[in-house]
Amino acid sequence: MSPTTVAEHRKRVAELVGLMPVLQLPLDECLGLVLAADVVAPLSLPPFDNSAMDGYAVRAAELAGEGPVKLPVADDIPAGRTEISPLEPGTVQRIMTGAPVPPGADAVIQVELTDGGTETVTINGKVRPGANIRTAGDDVQKGDPVLTAGTVLRPSTVGLASALGLPELPVRRRPRVLVLSTGSELVEPGRPLQPGQIYESNGTMLAAAVRDAGGTAVQLKFVPDDVEEFHRALTPYLGSVDVIVTSGGVSAGAYEVVKDALAGHDVKFTKVAMQPGGPQGSGRYEGVPVLTLPGNPVSAQVSFEVFVRPALLASMGHTQVERPTARATVTSPLTSPAGKTQFRRGLYDPSSGQVVTPVGGPGSHLLSALALSNCLIEVPEDVTEVAAGAEVVVRHLQ
Ligand code: AMP
Ligand code: MG
């Protein structure tokens, strides 16, 4: 059987995960989500002509003559005032930034050019008509298509929606991802470790990676290599999660709990032509998409990067699902197995002429090397040796 290519498996995973449903979410839950429909402005911004300064609403022509002008202050308009009387000729109204400009006024003179009076005011300057007035619709016209479907919502875009009076936006919701680690050797950090046991790391790492990709992670405590326990652990979550991501128990040894437990289900186990992260499984468990990642921590995390992260991003409606890449010169030689895409861990330094230094060897247990790296160095399938100084493609991890 010829191995599955990275591209084939990526496609299969993305299809399995599919698209999340669209719902209206309150603005404070929308950050980082993708707008699912165009937004047409329900009002103009600013909604009314308002003052850009603290000062006095005036008729510009009344200040046009020589010398200071002394005028009665007919009214006081703080921001938020809703009833505004027209500006009578020969008077001014004191006005604050953001307050509505009274009908009849055609300019605002800033308080700094006056004596600041409240009964009468002496004005020592001139303004042109329109000065210091923010006119209605300056920023957005009612009916404008202000935000388009596909926009990734940022602080400024949720701010704009709020300014337009929209309490919610239509977005694709976050996928809920159940993360389950398997292995009888695993112990929760904080508990004592017996000889032969190790502290669990994949669950914590993959749940963090799910959140980093924008999903909601439900991290299940790991299960031992026991098929019954595997089923028992998943059952309560089947109605509430969109994707199940497991780690461990899928390689060629005995006690491969994930393989054994999913044997009768619609799950395909395959070897993907990559290193690390060859053994992969994907399919449905009781109807829920399930992705089974290998157990070695670097394999699990690289698999997540290559397969799961893009699928989760796409499920939320992101069109940009790839990490940014760059070309860099590698500082030391690399070897890579024939016929496999290799993802080595590296430290990319853009400041010193786009150089990447491999961190650690190819071993998929070298978690600290992954933790200390900031990119993956991608060695193509047909390349077995990369000389020092050669150009490689790096995939930024942050
Ligand atoms: P497996 O694929 O289950 O045979 O696991 C391969 C290797 O990864 C073994 O050395 C496991 O102990 C280790 N491993 C599996 N799952 C985890 C995990 N959740 N945390 C840390 N190491 C793990
Ligand atoms: Mg295991």
UniProtKB/TrEMBL annotation:
User: What does the record give as EC number?
Assistant: 2.10.1.1
Q: Does the keyword Oxidoreductase apply?
A: no
Keywords, alphabetical: Magnesium, Metal-binding, Molybdenum, Molybdenum cofactor biosynthesis, Transferase
* Cofactor(s) the record lists: Mg(2+)
**InterPro entries from the UniProt entry:** MoaB/Mog-like_dom_sf, MoaB/Mog_dom, MoeA-like, MoeA_C_domain_IV, MoeA_C_domain_IV_sf, MoeA_linker/N, MoeA_linker/N_sf
Question: Which intervals carry biased composition (Polar residues)?
Answer: 328-339
Domain annotation MoaB/Mog: ranges: 178-314
Which reaction(s) are listed as its catalytic activity?
A: adenylyl-molybdopterin + molybdate = Mo-molybdopterin + AMP + H(+)
> Where on the tree of life does the source sit, at the highest rank?
Bacteria
Indicate what this protein is called per its UniProt record: Molybdopterin molybdenumtransferase
Name of the encoding gene: glp
